[in-house]
Amino acid sequence: MPILHGVNASPFVRKVRVALAIKGIDYELNPVMPMGVSDEYKQKSPLGKIPCWEDGDFTLPDSSCIIAYLEKLQPEPTLYPSDPRELGRALFLEEYGDSKLAETVGPFFFERIVRGKIMKAEPDEARLAKVLAEELPPVFDWLESQVPESGDAIVGGRFSIADIGIATQLVNGRHAGLDVDASRWPRLAAYRDAVFGNPYFKPIVEEETAQFGAM
Ligand SMILES: N[C@@H](CCC(=O)N[C@@H](CS)C(=O)NCC(=O)O)C(=O)O
After folding, report:
1. Which residues fall within 8 angstroms of residue 196, CB to CB, at 6 or more apart?
2. Would you state the CATH architecture of domain 84-212?
């Protein structure tokens, strides 16, 4: 059976787990922690990051690359829009989730879950207050401008890689008690609720919440 290397709470591992669930591909999760990976693991994942996919003699790191590969391997249900402009937008939204949104939400997860719950140390709430006041609002403002008035799909009215890439980061925020203020970002808040209720995200989020506890 193919192996997905990486641990649950990683938003990038979660992207791949949701894609695998949607495509109905069985796999084994091998819980590789992201820090201090072995030289043997670096042979499979040269940047030393999680996730990494392994199927027999084939290995492939990086969530975006793995999902694009899975799409070719098993095209249905598709995770990529067929319209060229929608495809372009979906890929950019995935990238925005992987980069800007991850950088903005990441500190909340690190301080409250990694430092607070796992390392049993004091989270740096002053750092988080600054992110909340200065860095987060422009990111949520931009996402608010991208979310359609209704519906649970950000591009083209159909759940896609764009939703996986954005929602997975919002899940890490949720684990760390970071809310989307519905009075300021009503579309994003409704969208977040819809994607969290998505039947492929929900069981994975619930499994993780059982591990970290709700905040
Ligand atoms: N672009 C990569 C990012 C993966 C990533 O940053 N994973 C983190 C864990 S959430 C990691 O392995 N960090 C360890 C490191 O940067 O050395 C992907 O999409 O898979």
Report:
1. 167, 170, 171, 174, 202, 205
2. Up-down Bundle (1.20)
